[in-house]
Amino acid sequence: MENQNLSLILFIVLSYSFISAFANSSLPKNVKPIRYTLTVETNLDVKENCTTFNGSIIIELLSVQAASNITLNARNLTINNEFLTVIHSDGSKLKVTNVKLDEEKQFLIIHLKDELLADEYYNLTIGEFSGIMTNDNVGFYLAKYTTKDGEERNIAVTDFESSDARKAFPCFDDPSMKAKFIINIIRPANYFAISNGELVSTEDLGNGRFMDTFNETMIMPTYVVAYLVSDFKHTQKIERHRVFAQPDAIDDGKLDYALSVAVETLQALEEYIGLNYTNTKMDQVAIPEKYFVEGAMENWGLVTFSDGNLHISNDTSSIEDIERVTTYIAHEFAHQWFGNLVTFKEWRYLWLAEGISTFFQFYGASFVRPTWRLMDRFVLTILQEAFEFDSTNYTVSINDVSGDDRYAVWWISYRKASVVMRMAQHFLTFDIFRRGLHLYLEKNKYQNTEPKDLYAAFQVIVDQDGADDILGNNSVESIMETWNSLEGFPLVTVERNYENHTFTLSQKRYFEDNDIESGNIWYIPISYVYQLHSNNNFSDTRADIWLTKKSMTFVDQFKAKGWFLINKQQTGYYRVNYDLVNWDRLASFLNQGDYDSIYVLNRAQLIDDAFCFARHGKIPYHVPLNLSKYLVRETDYVPIAPFVDAIPHLTFVMSSSKLYDVYRHYIINLLSTAYDYLGFDEKPSDSHLDKFNRINVVKVMCRLGHLECRNNALKKFREWKETGILSVDPLLKRLLFCNAMRIGDMDDWEFVYKKAINKSSTHHTALHSALACTENEFILKQYLNRLLNSTLLIGKGGRALFNNILLYSNVGPKVALDFLRNASIPEKQHATLVYDLSGRFATEEQLRELQVLNSTVRHKVFENAVNIVSGNIKFMKDSYKEDIEKWFYEYVAENMEDSNIV
After folding, report:
1. Which of 41, 332, 634, 885 is catalytic?
2. Which residues form the active site (predicted)?
3. d(Cα 63, Cα 65) in Å, to the nearest integer?
4. Binding residue per annotation — 764?
5. pLDDT on residue 822
6. Residue 702: pLDDT over 70
7. Is the pLDDT of residue 795 over 70?
8. Can you give the three-state secondary structure of 97-136, one letter per residue?
9. Hey, which of 140, 286, 544, 718 has its CA 20 to 30 A from 234?
C-alpha cells in the first residue's frame, strides 16, 4: 500500500543499543554499493551545539537481482525522507512507497513501487541526515584535549570497526560490501580535516565555513573509512608519511620516532609482501587516550592510535614503550594489505586480518629492528600466553569467534591465529609462506575472502615447487582446518620404550582440568632433535613427522639413548610432555652439558611446559625444579622469563612454609649469574632483551631479599632525593622506588609520601605504589592510619591502595590483619577489605584468625572471604606443597648460604 504521507517531511530517528557486528543479521545482497559520495558537516565551533553533525550521501548501486526494496544500515541518525530519492542511471526516478526501520537488525529498508532491474545501476540519495557526536568513543564522536595552558579543545574523530559506520552515515555496513568513497568535510575556518584520501580542494562556503574534498579512495569496507576534524599539528612530511597530534606533543618531538619508524616499516612490508602500498599517503593520528580505548585502528591511509601508543619521550618513555610503538605501527600497517586490500567475507573470519597482522606486528617490526629478537618476544608474550586462555573449557575455535565475547576475540582472533600463522610459516618454509601470502593478496585484492582462499594460495606454491613431502602429502587445507576449526590446542605426549627402541607420540586436547575428555584430532607438525645426532639442526623447523592420529609409534633411530626433544624453536602450537626418564635426561644435560646447544626458545619451552604441567598435576614438581637448577648458568632473557612467570605461584605456595628462607635462597642463587651479568644499572652494551631481562631479574632479586639489589635501589633513591636527577629506564624506576622503600627509613618514606600526595609531582604514580612496599611494620601501620584518617581508604581508589600493601609488602598481610581488627571502618568497606585480604591467606591458622574477625562483624562478604581461604588451603594441597618442600629439603637445605639475603 502506498504511503500517502510520504510528501510530508518525515523524520526517522534510528537509535538502538550496540549489537556486535558478529551478531548482526547480514544485509540482503540484492544490491551492491559501488561508490559513496559523503558530505559531513561538523559544528565544533558552536559551543552550545558542538556535538551535532549533519550530512548528505549519494550511493551508486548495482542491482544484483530484481528487487522491490533497498536495505542498508543506519543507527542513531535522523533522516529527512523528503530528500530521499532513487534514480536509475538513465535519469528516471523510482517512486519510494515506504521507509521502514528494523531496530533489532539496524536496517533501514526503502520500499519501491517499481522493481530494481538486475544488472542496472542506480543512485540512492539521502539528501539530509543528522546525528549526535556522543562520548562513547565509537562512530563519529567528540573528543577533547587540554593544552599546556589549560585550555580545552574539541576534536571530532571516527572509529567505525566493527559496525559503527552506520552511526555516522547510512551505509551498507558489512565487510563483504566494499566500495569506493569520495568524502567532503565541511568544517569551521579554525579547524582542518583529513580523511582516507589526499586533499583535492578546499571551497570557501562563506560564514566561516569551508568544505574540504578528498581524493576518491580504493575499494574498501566501511569500517576503515575515517575522517578527523581538529586543530592538531603534524610533523614534517617524509615521503608519504605525516603524524598528527596535539600541537604541544608535536612541538615537544613526541611523534618524531613514530614518523621515522613508520617510513621504515611501510617500505619493509612492501618489500616482503611484494605488493606496493596502494594509497598515496599514510597519515597517523594520536588521539587522547581517554577517547581512544581500542589502542589503534587501521583506517586506510589514516591510521589512528591512542596517543600512549604513538608518543615517545626521551625523558619518560621506557624500552617497553618504544617496542610497543614500533610493533603497533607494524600491526596497523600490515592491515593495509590484510583487511583493507583483501577483506574477510564475514566477521567470524576476522582472524584473516587480525591474526595475520598480529603475526606481522612482531615479524614485520623485526625487519626494521632486527637486533631486538622480536620473534623470541612473540613466543613469550603471544604464544605462551595464548596457551592460558586456550586451555580452558570455554575457549572457541578460530573460525567460530563471536563478537559477543571480546575476550575470545582478543585471545583467539588476534593471538592464537597469529601463532598458527607462525607455525604455518615454519612447516611450509619461509619462502613458500611469503610467496603464498603474495599470491593470496595479488589474486584477491579489493575483494573478500574466506580461509580456504588463503589455504589455496599456499597450496598453489607448494604444488609449483613439488613440495608435497613437507606436508606429509596432506593438503594445506586439511592441515590448517584442524587448527582453525577445533577448539583448544593439543598436548603431545612422548613415551620412549627403552627396551624395544621405539617412541610413541600421542595427542589429546590440553585442559587445565585433567578429567575433561575431547575427541579433537589435529594434524600436528612434529620436528625433533636427538642429543646424539651428529647435526642437531634447530634451524630446520620443517616437520619430520606429521602426527595425524591419536597415537602413532616410530622407530627410535638412536636406540633410546640420550635425550629427545620435540618442537624445534617451539614453532608448533602445542605443549610437549615426556616420560620421566627423558625429562631427567634433559635436566641433566642442561645442568652438566653444553646447555646452550639446546636452542634458546626450546630452553624456554622446557621451563614453561614443565612448570605448567606440575602446576596442573600432570608431572611431579621435581621435574621443573630439577630443570630450573640449570638457570644458575643462564643469562638470556628468553628462558629466564617463563621461570620468572612461574615464581609468583611458587612464592605463594612457599610463603607459609618453614622452608621459605631456603626457597628464597634458592631462587636468588639461580638468578645470581644473570644479575651479575646484567647489573643493576643500564649499560651501553645492553641488548634490547637485556633491558627486559634486567627488569625481571631485579624484580625477583630485590623482592626476595638480595642485599646488593636492595642497597643499589636505596642508593640510587637517595641520590635522586638529594639531586633530583634520576636516569633509569622508567620500567626500572618503579622497582627502584619500591625496593628503596623496603629497607629505607622513616625519613625516606616521608619524603616519598610528600611527593606522592602531590599529584602534579614527577613520578607521582610510581611513588604512590612505592609507599606500600615498606617492610617496616610501624611505617606500614602509620600509612594505613593516614589513609583512614584522610578518608582515602574508604573513598574511590582506597581499595587499590589497600591491595598495593597486600601485593608489594612482604609484611603487608600481617599488618593489614592487625589493622582491620581495630580500625573503625564502615561495615561494607571493612568487609570488602577483609575479602581482599583473604586472597593472601592459605593456612589453617590464618583461617582461624579470619573466622575470629568474622565473628565480630557479620556480613555476607566475610563468609565469602572464609570460603576463599578454605579454597586456598585446598589449593595448597592440590599444588603439591609437600612435594615441593620435600625437594627443597633434599637439595637446597644443605647448600644454604645466608650472607647475601635478608
Report:
1. 332
2. 332 (proton acceptor)
3. 5
4. no
5. 85
6. yes
7. no
8. EEEEEECCCCEEEEEEEEEECCCEEEEEEEEEEEEECCCC
9. 140
The answer to whether the pTM exceeds 0.90 is yes
> 812-822 and 798-808 are packed helices; what angle lies between their axes, rounded to 10 degrees?
140
Q: Is 863 annotated as a binding residue?
A: no
What is the CATH code of the structural domain delimited by 1-231? 2.60.40.1730
Neighbours of 288 (CB within 10 A): 18
What are the phi and psi torsion angles at 541 (to 5°)? -105, 15
Cell of 499: 627396551
Structure confidence at residue 14 (pLDDT) = 36
719 is annotated as an active-site residue: no
Q: Which residue has the cell 541518525?
A: 77
Predicted confidence at residue 44, as pLDDT, reads 87
Distance in angstroms (rounded) separating the CA atoms of residues 606 and 265: 34
Query: What amino acid occupies position 126?
Result: I
d(CA 212, CA 200) in angstroms, rounded, equals 8
- Average pLDDT value for the chain: 92
Closest Cα to residue 155, out of 64, 45, 252, 25? 45
Architecture of domain 343-485: Orthogonal Bundle (1.10)
Residue 4's pLDDT is 35
| Number of other CB atoms surrounding residue 680 within 10 Å | 22
Q: With bands split at pLDDT 50, 70 and 90, how would you rate the model's confidence at 1?
A: very low
109's grid cell: 529498508
Predicted confidence (pLDDT) at residue 16 exceeds the cutoff of 80: no
Q: Do residues 303 and 282 lie in contact, with contact meaning Cβ atoms separated by under 8 Å? A: yes
Spatial CA neighbour of 129 closest among 114, 111, 108? 108
Please give the CATH number for the structural domain made up of 490-510+519-633.
2.60.40.1910
Q: Answer whether 1-231 and 490-510+519-633 agree in fold.
A: yes
C-alpha cell, 748: 625516606
User: 232-336 sits in which CATH class?
Assistant: mainly alpha
- Residue type at 800 in one-letter notation: A
Position 452 scores a pLDDT of 98
Question: For residue 23, what pLDDT is reported?
Answer: 47
Average pLDDT rounded to a whole number, residues 41-49: 79
Look up residue 706 and give its DSSP letter.
B
How far apart (Å, rounded) are the C-alpha atoms in residues 541 and 310? 35
Model confidence at 285: pLDDT above 50: yes
Can you tell me the distance from the alpha carbon of 648 to that of 881, in angstroms, rounded to the nearest whole number? 14
866-898 per-position pLDDT tens digit: 888 888 888 787 777 888 999 998 876 666 555
pLDDT at 19 > cutoff 50 = no
CB burial of residue 509 (10 Å; 0-12, 13-18, 19+): buried
Q: Per residue, what are the HEC states of 837-849?
A: HHCCCCCHHHHHH
In 3-state terms, what secondary structure has residue 545?
strand
Q: Where are the domains of the chain?
A: 1-231, 232-336, 343-485, 490-510+519-633, 778-902
Residue that has been written with the C-alpha cell 580461509 in this structure: 451
Q: Is 294 annotated as a binding residue?
A: no
